[in-house]
Sequence to fold (429 residues):
Amino acid sequence: MAKKMSQSNTSSEPLKTADGVSLKVSLNRALRRRKITALLLVTPLFLFILLTFLGPIFDMLLRSVDNKIIVQVLPKTVSQLAVWDASTGELPDEAVFKAFVEDAKIAAENKTISRVGKRLNYEKSGMSSLFRKTGRKLKKFDPDKLEISYTDLVLGYDKKWAKHETWWLIQRESGKYTSSYYYAAVDAQIGVDGVQRKPDDQRIYMKLLKRTMWLSSLITLLTIVLGYPIAYLLATLKTRTSNLLMILVLLPFWTSLLVRTSAWIALLQREGVVNDFLVTLGFIGDDGRLAMIHNQVGTVVAMTHILLPFMILPLFSVMKTISPTYVRAARSMGATSFTAFRRVYFPNTVAGIGAGGILVFILAIGYYITPALVGGTSGTLLSNFIAYHISTSLNWGLAAALGTILLMVVLVLYILYDKIVGIDNMKLG
Fold:
């Protein structure tokens, strides 16, 4: 009986490792160490993505609504305007003008008043010159020698200060965040009566967005039409021949983008190679040379050539995995060559078309170097104006708003693709 109890106690004891630690505890420790090791290995990649991808996107989103300049430069004025009722249509009281003079004089001495004028000039032209002019006069102003009211003093500097709209604009843009950049990005503006569409001759960004979507879709379609037979040829030829042709496909990657774009300028201009060739063959007269550069034609041709390899490579990698026995089996069962291709081969390449299509489309809507060189006024894309506002006009808020809208469009199209086709079906080989 004692022997049986001893055996029972021994069997109920937990299993232990050679060093006397419970086997369960030892396994948990080993699993935890593996997780920590995996986390440490992934951390550099995560930090790289955070700093180079997520960080800039967050900064762009923040800049599209950031509006701290006015409250930082004119703090007293903003505080006084907060209690002013702009709906009455009357000018602010004396306290507002006094606060403005005190703030603007300090800002003029610190050379920051022009920043306020520049910010408000995005909303209404003439504000930049108004604040510069007022700042120059306030530098010479001595409060101890003031013989008139602050209201009369400011109104005497420029007649624009006597307009209700000027003070209403300062009050409207006195918050830390603003939606004005987004309204401007969709060709709208905030007026005293509410949000209004801009005049027809000032609506440019929505037209640019439509043009960007249209040209990017057309370029994507052309790369599919041109890239599919090339990828099919590469996938069905012998390996030696296929590798030789693949070098020709990859050759553009070894050439500067500017060189390739400049080559298309030489080819497509009125006195270029293509027009000379058409004139020589008699298809067009010398006085009827085609305009194929500095317009949408130049943008489509040049970008299709540049982005074509990005369509061929995903298609080739998918087609290479399709066994030729599938088509032979369909042929042996009575299907014609076209039917076998349509019902057997082509459905297996849809994943490659989806992968290449998304890749080319996203690259196309963000291109700005090639459209800037060959697009002229009718072939530029929204990305060209984003670059313009970042580097030339320095309206980073509007550039960030345009970039955010472009990002949202891409995300919506990505979600629609996932709903219709399924992102799980997208393959690169």
In short: The radius of gyration is 33 Å. The first strand starts at residue 188 and ends at 191. Residues 1-5 have pLDDT under 50 and may be disordered. The chain has three domains: 2-63, 69-176, 205-425.
